[in-house]
């Protein structure tokens, strides 16, 4: 529901997300820079020792911008922008006790998020290099403090109450690299209370290297998001035929599920090709508005924005087709702006 001003009318704290809060360090770079760090266009990787100089080099040599980032935090910021009502979404993640954390919290709260960061004094706040080459972007994340989230933060009485009182839960596959027990606890809470638990495949490397915790949580997942590369990586890891996205989506929907009264839904994006919605035996296509080349500023955050748009409608009880169309709207808007940022008032028309 919306009021006369277009703001939503849902209660505070209805949506909880867990993920990795990162400060994005974003810059336009030449292809040689990617090759220097053995990266490819559209990579999404975790930093190794050889990548550590990348952050300082971006700041010193490429006029880098700082943006509040991290996949789930991005999605929740976009949802808040569209909802135009503060504190609908609550975000959990771990940061350091430093200036970067202050910047992150300030930007998150100014975007309407209610953040419940776990703070570690012994490690710095995480960063993510966003390397823009034309309309492509490559991500190299140094999780740092984000990698130190612990389940005891969820046991804090205030945080525990927040999680118990939520109606919707969203977690990224990226969080599987950090603290699977926390994911399982949130998933079990959602299952016990018969509330939707949504998850994102997030990046091909999750299926390649973190399949065990992914398979552990998947039976709890009511809605799973992914793009074509992520879906194909999952299929390859499962030894499924990986060339047919429709077949992969059908198999994802049919994968083991604890709550059989709520059949799993899979939503797979394909860039400028139609979004595919899989429900039991049906597959629906939702066209994406193609942008002209000069309209595309930066594809960074498009997937996060899609989920944010979807969530903004889903927590209002809207139909799946409305949720997906809002996801497409949000992704299209974000692509026209640098990083996962937005401009002006949302213009989504249901």
From TrEMBL:
Record domain Carbohydrate kinase PfkB: where: 42-342
Gene Ontology molecular function: any one: adenosine kinase activity
UniProt protein name: Adenosine kinase
The protein's assembly and partners: Monomer.
Domain of life: Eukaryota
GO BP annotation list: AMP salvage; purine nucleobase metabolic process; purine ribonucleoside salvage
Family the UniProt entry places it in: Belongs to the carbohydrate kinase PfkB family.
Broadest EC class assigned to this enzyme: transferase
Cofactor note: Binds 3 Mg(2+) ions per subunit.
Pfam family, one: PfkB
Annotated InterPro entries: Adenokinase, Carboh/pur_kinase_PfkB_CS, PfkB_dom, Ribokinase-like
Annotated active site: 304
Protein function: ATP dependent phosphorylation of adenosine and other related nucleoside analogs to monophosphate derivatives.
Catalytic activity field: adenosine + ATP = AMP + ADP + H(+)
The keyword Transferase is assigned to this record: yes
Compartments (UniProt record): Nucleus
Entry's EC annotation: 2.7.1.20
Recorded metabolic or biological pathway in which this protein acts: Purine metabolism; AMP biosynthesis via salvage pathway; AMP from adenosine: step 1/1
Alphabetic keyword roster: ATP-binding, Kinase, Magnesium, Nucleotide-binding, Nucleus, Purine salvage, Transferase
Organism: Drosophila ananassae
A Gene Ontology term for the protein's cellular component: nucleus
Cofactor: Mg(2+)
